[in-house]
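Shift notes (night). Ran Sec-independent protein translocase protein TatA while the centrifuge was going.
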Amino acid sequence: MFRGIGLIEILLIAAVILLIFGGRKLPEFARGLGEAIKELRKAFNGKNDKE
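Came back to this:
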């Protein structure tokens, strides 16, 4: 049965991302991810920049 993602899984994913992108690219990657999530929420709520 699926119980969700635990702390160890999150740390493992974070370590892999750090190895792939490196320490210098990580803030840029996080900023882009945050913007993508913000745009996705706007799309689900039906809001756009004109309102």
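Residues 11-45 form one domain. The mean pLDDT is 82.
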